Amino acid sequence: MQSAECRAALPRLSAPIVLVHGLCGFRELAIGRAVLAEYFRGIPGQLAATGNRVFAAEVSPTGGVAARAADLRRFLLRELPNEPVHLVGHSMGGLDARYMVSRLGMASRVLSVTTVGTPHRGTPFADWGWQRLRRWVVPVLDWVGLSHQAFIDLRTDSCARFNEDTPDVPGVRYYSVAGVSEKPWRGPEWEPTWRIVHRAEGPNDGLVSLRSAAWGEHADVWPADHLNLVNWPNRRARRRGVWAERAPDYGRVVRRLAAAGF
């Protein structure tokens, strides 16, 4: 059901919105024509119902930023070859968007980049995981034919180099959203990763700190864990009556773009 707050006076942008999923993500899971799940759960339909054109890109689930950005570029050239777009990237998808704009010659095709829970400065959990889990994870990914470069690219040292080599492009507007997962939002499934990130960088969404996610000229902060940011429900928050659909939050993203003249 579409929220009244999302419907109310939600502007229609002149350019399409392109959603970019994060690590281990997908555009949608379907059997035939039956869609079982969307990565941005319900968001494309919510925004499209108000007249916006919304597309969801699909990029490599575990490839590095460079490979995923190249996938995103191919998607835009194929699906929207003659139009500028607004990019909204969740988690690693925000790094893909920044790389494509800055380093793949697509600056003239992108009006804005909004990142949602993106580890612009890396995540301590990637550092922790690379040190302790790579001996098991890397062989498994190699065995099934998947890249493990994403797990390297999300480390804090890798993102420091990324930011040096990938400057924001003048003329493209950059915005961001960070999640902060405090009780009663934080479910037990996020407790171990939340603690790892909190010890290193403080408030976080279970994977990405507030400090790492803030980027660009404006940063929103939503009460959410990392998957709440793309509208996946938190069971604990729902039981305690504090869960809310994310559609109104994405509505505010669209309103901000409209207020900027788009």
Give a quick set of tags describing it:
262 residues, Rossmann fold, six-stranded parallel β-sheet, two-stranded antiparallel sheet, 8 strands, globular
The parts where pLDDT drops under 50 for at least 5 residues are: none
C-alpha-based Rg, rounded: 18 Å
Strand order of the largest sheet: 4-1-5-6-7-8
Number of strands: 8
> Can you tell me the CATH class?
Alpha Beta
Shape: globular
Terminal CA distance reads: 27 Å
Q: How would you describe what is shown here?
A:
With 262 residues, the chain is an alpha/beta fold. It has a single domain, classed as Alpha/Beta hydrolase fold, catalytic domain (Rossmann fold, 3-Layer(aba) Sandwich), CATH 3.40.50.1820. The protein is built from eleven helices and eight strands. It has a six-stranded parallel beta sheet with strand order 4-1-5-6-7-8, sandwiched between helices. Strands 2-3 form a two-stranded antiparallel sheet. Helix 3 crosses helix 4. It is globular, with a radius of gyration of 18 Å. The chain starts with a helix and ends with a helix. The model has no long low-confidence stretch (mean pLDDT 90).
Give the helix/strand layout.
Elements: H1 4-7, E1 17-20, E2 28-31, E3 34-38, H2 43-48, E4 54-57, H3 65-79, E5 85-90, H4 92-103, E6 110-116, H5 124-144, H6 149-153, H7 156-165, E7 173-180, H8 191-201, H9 210-213, E8 218-223, H10 235-239, H11 247-259
Parallel strand pairs: 1-4, 1-5, 5-6, 6-7, 7-8
Antiparallel strand pairs: 2-3
Helix pairs in contact: 3-4
